[in-house]
Amino acid sequence: MIAPEFIDEVLARTDIVEVIQSRVVLKKTGQNFTGLCPFHNEKSPSFSVNQDKQFYYCFGCQASGSALKFLMEFDRLDFVAAVETLAASAGLQVPQSVAAGTPERHERRKSIYHILDQAAVFYQRQLKQHSHKTQAVEYLQGRGVSGEIARDFGLGYAPPGWDNLYKDQAKTNLEHDLLIESGMVVNNKDEDKTYDRFRDRIMFPIRDIRGRVIAFGGRILGTGVPKYLNSPETPVFHKGRELYGLYEARKRTRKLTQVLVVEGYMDVVALAQNDINYAVATLGTATSSEHLERLYRLVSRLVFCFDGDNAGRSAAWKALTVALPLMKDGRSARFLFLPDGEDPDSLVRKEGKDKFEWRLDQALPLSEFFFNKLAAEVDVNTLDGKAHLSNLAMPMIQEIPDGVFKQLMIGQLSTLTGLAADKLVAASASPPTRRAPPAKPGKTVDPPWAGQSLDYAGYDHRGDDQDDAPDGYQAGYQQAYTGSHNGVSSHKPTSQRPARRQDHNDFARLVDAAIAMLLRQPELSQQFDEYTYSKLEAGPGCSLLLELIHAVLAREITSPLMLLASWQERPEFEYLRALVEQEQLLDVSELPEEFTGVVNKLLQLVETHSARQLRTDLLAKPFSDMSEAEREMLRKLVKAGQQRQ
């Protein structure tokens, strides 16, 4: 907490009129200053600022408070950031104890901000002075970027060469370390080399809400990969939270009424060049709930802009699923799909501002995109198609906060299915009658494969790898390794033996863990590719896990509720629901690493399982019928088994 005495001192040194007048047009009227209220729409001034009392008040909406509260409301700053902003203007330093972490960590972060700011200055200087600047300048001019826009967005140039920035900035060991920690240079310990991360690229500084440079994006000149390169995650930069152009949009527009979400840096810059100053871009990641929460704190209307191809529509659907839980009454989201071969940059330069903004006004409302997408997957002219549409839509609609918009969405679904709204709600809330009754609290629901005689081939009743193998591979080979005499095998196939309980438990435990994490965060399925997952097909009990993964990938499910709901009619539903209801010990941020580890362990078990299956098949085969390749394979498998003993 910040000491009240320090806050009092900051406010005592602050002139509220100066703070507000830099953001709102004020006029002196008697002892007070008046203007149009920035917190609601009005035509005649009702917003009053009293300089003596250091207090503002609106007679229209009753907004009121000190300079500190004004910054928090108008600039959308948190408490500490607002105090820091006022303190900086007053020439004061916020006590370090209020900063995140220790004073040393706070100072380190300040040093990283400083080194990033110096890097931005360096790149801007290179765009003006470097001998190779011509290609960079011609590229920007060819995209219609003016000097004014380049200045406002701080555009720069990283010249060719391995260590231009490093040589310019790393004068001390501390600066060397800060350049590495900030992601601006790469330290290759294996080769003992340190070199610039960005080379021969147009540079786009990424700023936080306070205007501090926190990272960079670089667009390559000419051919090469990657086309766009971003700074890595650092102590001051987390790309899943930040939006390129948000600081510039707020700076260039006195009061934002809507925000256009696009995909690229140049889209934001080109739109600003055409006086569309409310565009932002995600930083090479899918739109996240943190992105949208931040934007909805600023404006009530968002427009998502995507390519009109399948990839663009897929990205738009993911954005919609993220937006649904945030769609409180008063908020809106629309989706603009561009003509083939166009992006916002090319289209706005071709059509101009007015035509582009006309397209924004015609963008699909979230509700229309939602029902169009789901209705395209079913035949709404049949009863089973309508039922399927209801099963797809209701779990997602239930994620919308209670309110008028949610009721309207249910009403629209009612129109499409012909089922009354209250019936839709009741059907989605209650399980089908043919399902098993819910598990009692504390009662464990067995997985679908419980009680099955799972075939862990090669896991015989003697235990793991108890081969009793002789020292040699020649004399007595048939008897020792096939249990046969004169080519007649007396060895029973392992598949007829009971599975070893421990191995059964190992597989079941890992599969349970993987499914539980997948039900909590469906996007985890993207941790591996299809080929890797296909290796699990040989694993006992992995079929349900694979079915869930394939469902997520095929239908691009991002909602845990939607994933669970899609199994409502299946006998495995109670098992899945029990996993969802288990106490969660891991934080969401820990799930990707944990899921990767569990799947890798499953892959190892499957590999061992497959090797044992192969060995068992070979042991069951008469020696005289084996090919030389099969004999050699058996030798290797037996030898590997001996080494594990």
Molecular structure report:
The chain is an alpha+beta fold and 645 residues long. The chain has four domains: 4-98, Alpha-Beta Complex (DNA Primase, Chain A); 99-237, DNA primase, catalytic core, N-terminal domain (DNA primase DNAg catalytic core, N-terminal domain); 377-429, Pheromone ER-1 (Up-down Bundle), CATH 1.20.50; 437-645, DNAb Helicase, Chain A, CATH 1.10.860. Strands 1-2-3-4-5 form a five-stranded antiparallel β-sheet. Strands 13-12-14-15-16 form a five-stranded mixed β-sheet, with helices on both faces. The longest helix has 29 residues, at 591-619. The radius of gyration is 32 Å and the shape is globular. The model is unreliable at 431-444 and 451-502 (pLDDT under 50).
Précis, in short:
Helices cover 47% and strands 11% of the residues. With 645 residues, the chain is an alpha+beta fold. The radius of gyration is 32 Å and the shape is globular.
